[in-house]
């Protein structure tokens, strides 16, 4: 059983940066895909980024590709989302998710993931 805890959200101004963290309770299988999703009020859950635990390969939603970076620290069982040049439309509840067996080509699909954190709020406003 995997438990995920997100942290690092907050209220920032447009153009500012934040780094989100997601810590897993136990050892992360080498086959795991870990992802970040976000959901704003009145909108559907949206894929943001994903990373393959063993290879470190990364995947991004097109609208944030040049601004956000996903990474992991295997020793700490932690995945990060570095968010730069934040925009008001980035405002959402951000979730960390894990698929222990690997998401394959469906890394962008939230139904592929088995475990979810509670979410951390990011608000971008002037």
What does this entry show, briefly?
The chain has strands at 4-7, 10-12, 18-24, 33-39, 46-52, 58-60, 68-73, 78-83, 92-99, 115-116, 120-124. By secondary structure, the protein is mainly beta.
Description:
It is globular, with a radius of gyration of 13 Å. The chain has no helices and eleven strands. The chain has strands at 4-7, 10-12, 18-24, 33-39, 46-52, 58-60, 68-73, 78-83, 92-99, 115-116, 120-124. The relative contact order is 0.32. The strands form two sheets. Strands 2, 4, 5, 6, 9, 10 and 11 form a seven-stranded mixed β-sheet that branches. The termini are far apart. The chain is mostly beta strands and 126 residues long.
Structural class: mainly beta
Low-confidence stretches: none
Mean of pLDDT: 96
Strand content: over 45%
Distance between the termini: 41 Å
Shape by Cα distribution: globular
Largest sheet: 7 strands, mixed
N to C succession of SSEs:
EEEEEEEEEEE
Q: How helical, in percent, are the residues?
A: under 10%
Global Rg: 13 Å
Give the oligomeric state.
single chain
Number of helices: 0
Number of strands: 11
């Amino acid at each position: 059983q995997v438990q995920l805890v997100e942290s690092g959200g907050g209220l920032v101004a447009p153009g500012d940066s934040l780094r989100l963290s997601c810590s897993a309770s136990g050892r992360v299988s080498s086959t795991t895909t870990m992802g970040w999703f976000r959901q704003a009020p009145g909108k559907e859950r949206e894929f943001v980024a994903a990373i393959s635990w063993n290879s470190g390969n990364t995947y991004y939603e097109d609208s944030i590709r040049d601004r956000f970076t996903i990474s992991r620290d295997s020793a700490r069982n932690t995945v990060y989302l570095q968010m730069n040049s934040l925009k008001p439309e980035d405002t959402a509840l951000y979730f960390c998710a894990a698929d222990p067996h690997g998401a394959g080509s469906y890394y962008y699909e939230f139904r592929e993931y088995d475990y979810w954190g509670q979410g951390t709020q990011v608000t971008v406003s002037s």
